[in-house]
Amino acid sequence: MTTKETKVTARSDLSGVDSADRPHRQRAAPDGTSPTALPSVMLLCGASSLHARKWAVALAERGHRVVAASWIGAEPIDGVDLRVAPGTGQTRHGPWGAVWQLVAAGWWLRRQVREARPDVLHVHSVGMAGLLSLLAPRRPARVVTPWGVDLQSARRSRFRRWVARAALRRCDLVLPTAGSVRTEIVESYRIPAARTRTVSWGVDDRLFALRDTVTPSSVRREFGIPDDATVLFAARTTGPVYRTPEVLRAFAQVAMTRLDLHLVVLTGHRPAEAAAAQAQRRCVTEAQELAERLPGRVTVLDRSLSPEDTFRLMRASEVSISVPRFDQRSCTVLEAAHAGCRLLLADLPPYRELVEDGLVADIVSGPLEAALAEQFLAARPLEPALRERNRRFIETSESWSRQVSVVQECYRRLTADRVEQRRGGVSR
What we know:
Layout: E1 6-9, E2 41-44, H1 50-61, E3 66-70, E4 81-84, H2 94-116, E5 120-124, H3 128-133, E6 141-145, H4 148-156, H5 158-169, E7 173-174, H6 179-188, H7 205-211, H8 216-223, E8 230-234, H9 244-254, E9 261-266, H10 274-293, E10 298-301, H11 307-315, E11 319-322, H12 331-339, E12 342-346, H13 349-357, E13 362-364, H14 368-377, H15 384-397, H16 400-423
Parallel strand pairs: 2-3, 2-5, 3-4, 5-6, 6-7, 8-9, 8-11, 9-10, 11-12, 12-13
Antiparallel strand pairs: 1-4
Helix pairs in contact: 4-5, 9-10, 9-14, 12-15
Protein name: Glycosyltransferase involved in cell wall bisynthesis
Keywords: Glycosyltransferase, Transferase
InterPro entries: Glyco_trans_4-like_N
């Protein structure tokens, strides 16, 4: 049985985007060296990821030719040439089956790069994407955005650490979202600091406009949340990584003492990996069982929400909880800050950086379950002056459109450097 790769290009809907914010890709000069042409970009990613799709759409809307090369099946992406590796969704039994699948995906990726001839290959994560990137041709300028989960896995596995190191050392530029992660990349992986830059992913500018249009009482009625409750929103994807079991147990400890508290649990994105999906389902089941034991006190949203609906729920909540085992500069945390929530954050370096930068948040230290229970007992809305302070912080320094412009400038510099290297006969 043979399988065919999938190529899907969806038309981008730019009706809501101001013309000044969506430049068009310009044609190169006859010699192919137009300095004003926008670099073409191939994103090597799991294209079902909300973050990867957001980046692909943002670049396409700004006029870049964007190809998304994915080893995971996904829905079409507006304005993006989506290419999915053959054999997606098929199970290869045994270690040799996995090896064969990897080799086949690697050859497929090499063919996609040669056909598409992107100026930039942007590798989103040093996990599976990082592994596949080792098989890609060297011609395009290469950018890597390491994800926190991959670096955490690399600390526990020699093979994963080797993959991460190899992927990082083969790239021209590394773009972590937190300064602490940049430090780890420089010190632990021996990547020159000049080849790294911290770029936060920020908050979507559309949420800035949405903020003051949300009526919290209407949102609460829509989701069945009591109007007079103090709402604790666990806005991160349900699962062990985000410490959902500890959040549930902490809430159960204080529920009979603080009768006004109401917990909202969001299932979020469904993992593609079977083991991660099973772990998520166990956490969701635990949340549903708690909701049955405490009727009217827990809302379990067993689905994904759009970014806009998630933000609306944040606007209707007093407290947002983010206590993962590891993280970078989380978009969800920044969005909750802009929405006006009191933030309960794990004691992690990227979160401490946010506080040092000026964000108002409560860092939860010590044994997590007991520390969360203590915070829940004291839960209250953030004071208006502090809500406004967080809002100014986000709108001043964490605009998504500004972060996209920074990445665009990185692409331009890298491709210009490549042109100069070729003219000078320098090969990397």
